[in-house]
């Protein structure tokens, strides 16, 4: 009887699993079929509605379960490349009459915002309207909205205009309470990534570099807004100093916005532009729907290709993830592009504050090999600093936005002495037997000897010497000149160009143009090949469940979520590191 029940139970469980998997397959096949076999149809007299109050990443992650609730995962993130491509299509699409932009609190870096803003400016050359509306607007949101023909701010809302700030978090007090002793080995007085573990505030060199690059970004932002709104730079800076913009009427009086009004009022204005009756609905087209209305395959003709290799996230050895750069993956992509005769030039697009020194060097080597065969152009996104800069310093040319964060040419090693923590907090002790004097080197469960610490420091200095010498060779700078601007110091793209770290200011499109010119390719004679390829269906399915779980955990932790994420990142600090200051957020 028990044996019979066991078989019945096994059969029931098997049927349930089969049904569940079949259900997933049915959804996946249906979604894949619908996305591949049919395109969205856009009606005439449409308005492209762009909601940028979402995370912006380099590329949109394709998800066949998008729109299927729980199975969709966190599909809110939108791709920078996709946004610009949609704006490029809409510019010449007779069915699109204008853009309705909402960007109160965009979750993007300043360089990404710059590329989107420039794409909006280019769209306006079509003489189509761009209207922006916000119940509230942060400075990032207003930076995008400032190019609009009309900017409406809700009468009960507010516009943030008080300058930029960057706040760092320090954990020394926490480590002291836990009796965790950090062992730091670094080169460069500006290499501040280790400061959160050994200080309670910013060092003077770190404060100096933050003040410098933050003011560089702010000066550029204010200048661009002044040009778009026909305002004076000194007036805009005075408004920020004096907190002049306290309510919507202040924004209207100072001409930062064109109107104080509600959404129905800006929609009334759009109806006039579209020549619609008052009760007629506006034909809004979302960004995702519009992307499904045209063929977004690589443009151009012929067999020539420009490979665009996207590398975004922390740098580690192994395979790349959705938010990480794996040296194995990126090195392989560069190698394939080098060996592919159809690929005439390579663009390496980096959005990273750094990571593993070893992994960075592995990718650097492939860049060096590739540029012997064909032009290799570096494109910097929001960040291309420390290990991110290391990846690109061997390129034939480097292109960065004025507000890109780059440089940070420095090295550090970090270990935690956990002996006191385990003994005093957990009652755990350690003992050991060695065959040689330093068999237990490096150690995390007891104090290292002065000799062992000296070895680690010399190792760190050796890698720094390697970093600076290769950077000097790649940038064709005297080693003394390179080291004078290194030391771990962070620069903006504007500053980097003046110092010789960057060749040209611009975005990804500019880098692609440089690559085409270097390969003697004319417009239309080549197609773009974006790499690495997007994840296959089942990989996306599994990652969607993982990402959804992480989203729920973050929602439960609330304000503590960033700190937990920060501490989890400590697990990746293996070996010598080339990193920017952790979790730098400019607001």
Automatic annotation (TrEMBL):
Localization per record: Membrane
Q: Does the keyword Transmembrane helix apply?
A: no
Q: Tell me which domain of life the UniProt entry assigns to the organism this sequence originates from.
A: Bacteria
Q: Name one GO biological process term.
A: signal peptide processing
* Catalytic center residues: 191, 386
One annotated GO molecular function is: serine-type peptidase activity
Residues in Peptidase S49 domain copies: 123-276, 370-522
List, alphabetically, the InterPro entries matched.
ClpP/crotonase-like_dom_sf, Pept_S49_pIV, Pept_S49_SppA, Peptidase_S49, S49_SppA_67K_type_N, S49_SppA_C
Keywords per UniProt: Hydrolase, Membrane, Protease, Serine protease
Cellular component GO terms, alphabetical: membrane
By sequence similarity, the record places it as follows: Belongs to the peptidase S49 family.
What is this protein's name?
Protease-4
Which organism was this protein described from?
Answer: Spirosoma oryzae
């Amino acid at each position: 009887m028990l044996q019979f029940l066991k078989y019945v139970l096994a059969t029931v469980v098997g049927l349930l699993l089969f049904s569940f998997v079949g259900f997933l397959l049915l959804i996946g096949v249906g979604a894949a079929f619908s996305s591949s076999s049919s395109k969205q149809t856009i009606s005439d007299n449409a308005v492209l509605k762009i909601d940028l109050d979402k995370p912006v990443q380099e590329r949109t992650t394709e998800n066949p379960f998008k729109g299927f609730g729980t199975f969709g995962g966190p599909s809110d993130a939108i791709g920078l490349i996709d946004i610009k491509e949609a704006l490029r299509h809409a510019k010449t699409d007779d069915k699109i009459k204008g853009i309705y932009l909402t960007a109160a609190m965009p979750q993007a870096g300043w360089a990404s915002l710059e590329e989107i803003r420039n794409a909006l400016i280019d769209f306006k050359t079509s003489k189509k309207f761009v209207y922006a509306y916000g119940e509230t607007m942060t400075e990032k949101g207003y930076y995008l909205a400032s190019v609009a023909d009309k900017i409406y701010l809700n009468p009960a809302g507010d516009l943030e205009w008080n300058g930029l700030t960057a706040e760092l978090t320090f954990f020394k007090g926490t480590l002291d309470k836990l009796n965790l002793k950090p062992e730091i080995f670094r080169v460069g007085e500006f290499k501040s990534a280790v400061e959160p573990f050994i200080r309670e505030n910013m060092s003077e060199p770190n404060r100096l570099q933050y003040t410098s690059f933050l003011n560089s970004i702010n000066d550029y932002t204010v200048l661009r807004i002044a040009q778009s709104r026909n305002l004076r730079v000194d007036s805009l800076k005075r408004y920020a100093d004096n907190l002049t913009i306290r309510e919507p009427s202040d924004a209207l009086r100072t001409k930062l916005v064109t109107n104080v009004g509600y959404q129905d009022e800006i929609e009334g204005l759009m109806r006039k532009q579209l020549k619609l009756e008052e009760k007629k609905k506006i034909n809004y087209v979302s960004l995702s729907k519009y992307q499904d209305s045209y063929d977004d395959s690589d443009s151009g003709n012929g067999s020539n290709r420009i490979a665009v290799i996207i590398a975004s996230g922390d740098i580690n050895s192994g395979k790349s993830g959705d938010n990480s750069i794996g040296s194995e993956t990126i090195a392989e992509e560069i190698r394939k592009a080098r060996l592919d005769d159809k690929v005439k030039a390579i663009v390496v697009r980096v959005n990273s504050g750094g990571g593993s020194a070893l992994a960075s060097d592995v990718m650097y080597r492939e860049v060096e090999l590739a540029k012997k065969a064909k032009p290799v152009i570096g494109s910097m996104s929001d960040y291309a600093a420390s290990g991110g800069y290391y990846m690109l310093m061997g390129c034939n040319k480097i292109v960065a936005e004025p507000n890109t964060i780059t440089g940070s040419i420095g090295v550090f090693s970090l270990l935690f002495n956990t002996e006191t923590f385990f003994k005093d907090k957990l009652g755990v002790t350690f003992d050991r037997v060695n065959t040689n004097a330093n068999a237990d080197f490096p150690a995390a469960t007891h104090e290292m000897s002065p000799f062992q610490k000296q070895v680690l420091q010399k190792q760190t200095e050796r890698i720094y010497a390697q970093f600076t010498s290769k950077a000097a060779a790649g940038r064709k700078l005297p080693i003394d000149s390179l080291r004078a601007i290194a030391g771990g110091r962070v620069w903006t793209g504007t500053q980097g160009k003046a110092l010789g770290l960057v060749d040209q200011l611009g975005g990804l499109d500019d880098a692609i143009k440089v690559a085409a010119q270097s390969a003697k390719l004319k417009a239309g004679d080549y197609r773009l090949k974006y790499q690495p390829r997007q994840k296959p269906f089942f990989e996306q399915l599994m990652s969607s469940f993982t990402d959804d779980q992480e989203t729920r955990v973050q929602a439960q932790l609330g304000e503590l979520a960033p700190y937990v994420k920060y501490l989890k990142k400590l697990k990746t600090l293996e070996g010598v590191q080339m990193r920017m200051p952790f979790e730098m957020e400019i607001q």
